[in-house]
choloylglycine hydrolase
Amino acid sequence: MCTAATYRSQDFYFGRTFDYEFNYGEEVVVTPRNYSFQLRHQNALTEHYAMIGIAHMVGDYPLYYDAVNEKGLGMAGLNFAGNAVYRKPREGRDNIAQFEFIPWILGQCATVQEARTLLAHINLVDTRFSEQFPTSQLHWILADRDEAITIEAVGEGLNIYDNPVGVLTNNPPFDKQLFRLNDYSYLSPDQPVNRFSEQLQLQPYSRGMGAMGLPGDLSSASRFVRVAFTKMNSVSGTSESESVSQFFHILGSVAQTRGCCRLENGKYEITIYTSCCNADRGIYYYTTYENHQITAVDMYRENLDGEIPVHYPLVQGEHILLQNAADTTEEKL
Ligand SMILES: C[C@H](CCC(=O)NCCS(=O)(=O)O)[C@H]1CC[C@H]2[C@@H]3[C@H](O)C[C@@H]4C[C@H](O)CC[C@]4(C)[C@H]3C[C@H](O)[C@]12C
């Protein structure tokens, strides 16, 4: 399971949790404008917008899971198992393999509105990157500071939904996720008033009772409601540190702890990384399951006119500040 979300304070933020039972050795990758993205069915993308995100590198080719480009447009792929349907290449269309979709859009579009034009011509195809990798069954959230959409390639074609909550999880399809929010319209950050019966003296006996009924389980449908409620009611200061901190709290509401989601193979799904990218400033912040210290990579500290992606392995291991250490140098615990 994974969850993606957008957030706006002074700047625009875009991020996700990456929940899975194993990792592919993903890294933070900055792809500069002149890296030549070789495409299977189209001409290579040679000059494009620079982007930063998390990808699995195969040689110098970044297989992006999520990224933000230099124009502040963000895109993330999340599992859509059993529902994603990709087609065979077709004459007269832009035939884009699933693993090329993020660079295809982020390389060329500055806004969601511009992406809508490209999406009208696209045919997402099932061409595999290599024998080593299965074709991932994904759906995507695409967002800028003004709007978000969800893109789902299904049996009947490409569905593009307006995403007014700026949130995406996994199954079921997005229209059903959104509709289910109707069931929770009574939830509130305020204390409830007694509407049960005038004949009874009912009173809140704890803070937070306005959100009683907010689903707490780890299913993607429940995470959708939970993160939507958390995000839509979120209040933060506008500084960078307040916004980033708040964003990690929003996604923290759906974090997966090892042991709580056991799979048939006996493994556990956990939140491998959580990201928050300041889309306006090109700074990609992340934490990992075992490293709660926020680490950042700033796209603008790289040569964005270069030709080769620059990649940074995720920093792992907790960094604990021993507050009463004998001297000011960091003492490892
Ligand atoms: C498994 C990841 C999605 C995580 C997620 O949504 N988990 C929820 C699981 S579930 O619903 O609860 O079952 C997806 C997101 C991006 C995917 C990767 C990217 O699409 C890039 C390449 C694409 C290649 O085709 C396959 C390898 C791969 C490197 C993909 C592996 C895997 O499918 C990833 C890493």
The chain has one domain: 2-313. Residues 1-2, 18-20, 24, 56, 63, 65, 77-79, 81, 98-99, 129, 133, 135-136, 138, 170 surround taurocholic acid (CB under 6 Å).
